Structures are given as structure tokens and as C-alpha cells.
Amino acid sequence: MSTQSPFPSKLPEVGTTIFTVMSKMALDFNAINLSQGFPDFEISAELQNLVTDYMGKGHNQYAPMAGVPDLLNSISRKLKQTHNIEVDEKNEITITAGATEALYATIAAIVKPGDEVLVIEPAYDAYVPAVRLNGGKPVLIPMDIPDFTINWDRVAHHITGRTKLIIINTPHNPTGTILEEDDLSALAGIVAKHGIYVLSDEVYEHIIFDGEVHQSVLKHPGLRERSIAVYSFGKTFHATGWKIGYSVAPPSITREIRKVHQFLTFSVNTPIQYALATFLEDKKNYEGQDRFFQQKRDYFLEQMQTSRFVPVTSKGTYFQLFSYKNYGNRPDREMAEWLTQEIGVASIPISVFYQDKTDNHYLRFCFGKNDQTLKKGAEILCRI
């Protein structure tokens, strides 16, 4: 049977994601999987029991389209407690099937055919396809290396009369960098001058290190009215397979996001929503994530000290970038495959986060793993 598409593909350049490829390769070659961003430790037993309890109480039918009211209320209180953000829970929060759906629903609501969307690279791989599927034109702006910072003058230079949206990500996947207060001020100046919208991917809001404070667009007075922030319970509570997240936006934008959301998934897993609503009532369940993952980052960096990999120290997320310039100039994808197949540790090549596959010889490793996994992986890498 022919495998050729019977009609023109909307995403002809898109194949199987690198995360799936490298995880399968790790499995095939019995390598330690530090590639795909999922923890290898259990989620809270209390949270699991809450899901079971709410199933037993009969909360197994459709949830309200925008989300279970108890969860919307819990999110509103959490945003106030953690970031001092005031949110209208009924009109500004939408529960989605993971952050990826929130991103897509937002882009589908805002972007019309011919609109330009500024995308900072390296970029999480869901952004550009969503823009293209909705008829938009991605305008790609590279970060400055080796620190992976954003040149806001360069961003402003790329704005035209067709620019509708800019997508930012902090803490940033794949680089582990964060946006500072000055970054948001520069962005606010651009938004005020050109009247564009901001989509801010903030799924790692609770995983930020060294005493730094998460800079959300929702806190900035110059950005609040034209910004959409996206969050993920899967990242916060180590339950990536649950695929549950949410968006926060002004009421006028939220109405449009919900129009798209109701025809993508309509509503999201009901008992998990109730469980999360209860779990969020105790702030200790999410406030310790920064310390927990910083300990893992520091442990992994310590274990890697005798290697010749050069770190770009992560400031957030559970990802750590390393330059492998001391090991030669082979392409990063080839290097990642060699490490997996021949050495026994899987990583992600950073070139896949660029549309033109820019290769600066960096690899991304996930340190959201058990210490035993990190120690074993680092020991292997240090022997190269």
C-alpha cells in the first residue's frame, strides 16, 4: 500500500518529532534516556488518591467547557499567592488538554491568513506548525549565543504592518534561560508602539533557580491587556501524561480562545480537574519545585565536572545545555545519535529547535530524573 499522501500536506516538512525518535533510540540501544522531558520518578501519592476519590464520587462525565469552577478558583488563588496576579477566574482562565492545546487554541484564535508571528529561536517545536496551520507566517529571530539572550532591537526590526503576535517562553525550553524584568520592559515598549499581542509559554513557572523570580507577562502593566500566558500541571506535578494545562488572558481574548477550545477538545478530564483543585489548596504542593529541581541541576553539573562537556548553566526548567566543542565538530544530530547508540546516553540536538537546523554544537539533557539515573548517565559521559 502506498504511503504517499493522497493530497498536498499542510506540513510537508514535519515528520516524527525528535523526542519520539530519541526516546525510541534510547530504548532500542538500552541507553539512559536524558532526552525527552519527562521525570522517571512517581507523582504524589496524595494526588493520585484524590483522582481515585473523585472518580469514586461520580465525577466522570463532561466537565464545563471552560473548566471545573473549583479548579478555576484554585488557580486564581495560586496566581495571587505565587505571583501576586489578580485574575477573574470566570472570564480569564480556560482549562485545556495540556499546554500544547492552549498554545494552539490561542494561535488559532488570533492568527489569520497572512499574519506574521515572531518566533524566538531555538523554539519549542509546537509553535511554528500551529502558526502555519492557521495561515500565518513565522518570522524567525535567533537568540544571541553563547548566553542565549534576546536582542530586542533585532526583534523590533522584524516587525512589519502584518505582525500580529510574538511568542515568548520563560523559563525557556530548550536553553534553560529566563527572561529578566528588563526583557519584559523592552517587550512592553514594542507592544505599546506596534499594538501586537504576546503569547507567553510559562509552563516551567515553578522551576526557576538561584533565587530568581519568575517574570510573567501577567504581572507587567504594559503587557497584561495584550498577553496570553500558558501553564502546565503536567510539568508542575511530574504528570506529563495527564495532558492538562490552562491559559490566562483578558476576557475579550479568552472568549475567542474558548471558541476554538470547544471544538478542539470541548472539555478536559473531569476527576483530574477536581483532584488538582483540592491539591492546589496546600501551597507546599507546588512551592518547593524550585529547590527540588535546583538540587538535581546542581547534582548533575557536579557529576559532569570531569567531562569535557561545557555547560550553559540552566536558570530554569529541568533541561541543561552542554556544548560538545571539545569533542570535535560533528553535526549535533549525529553526535546525539552516536552518544545514544555507542556510548549509552540519549540527549536532544539543539539544531532541531531551529527551522533552518542551525547547528551551534549544543545538546540538551533532561535532569528531571532520579539521582541514580543522573549519576549513571554522567559517569558514562565522563568516560568519553
From TrEMBL:
The keyword Transferase applies. It comes from Agaribacillus aureus. This is Methionine aminotransferase. Keywords: Aminotransferase, Pyridoxal phosphate, Transferase. InterPro entries: Aminotransferase_I/II_large (IPR004839), Kynurenine-oxoglutarate_AT (IPR051326), PyrdxlP-dep_Trfase (IPR015424), PyrdxlP-dep_Trfase_major (IPR015421), PyrdxlP-dep_Trfase_small (IPR015422). Its cofactor is pyridoxal 5'-phosphate. It holds the Pfam family Aminotran_1_2. One of its GO terms (molecular function) is transaminase activity. Coiled coil: none annotated.
